């Protein structure tokens, strides 16, 4: 039995480390980056059209952290009895998401060009 990881696992791990490192200058974790990007891009919305904001559960810790840092704003959704929040990116959140997306894309390209063995 060998302790070697499959090539796909090594490449995946290397890519994840590269992405995490690329996000450090923006003060984002990979999870925060994905959440912020979903709000900025409207991808968290269901349906064919992008909504102007995203409805989420108010207790989401990622949302609270992004809001505390001024990257998103939220308002209660009265039609849900305030069980949901409408979330919009702030100007700062949009700028950081755009810059971080470029850094993540660069990190992913570098990982694909690296040899398979670490």
Automatic annotation (TrEMBL):
InterPro entries, alphabetized: WH-like_DNA-bd_sf, WH_DNA-bd_sf
Record-given protein name: HTH marR-type domain-containing protein
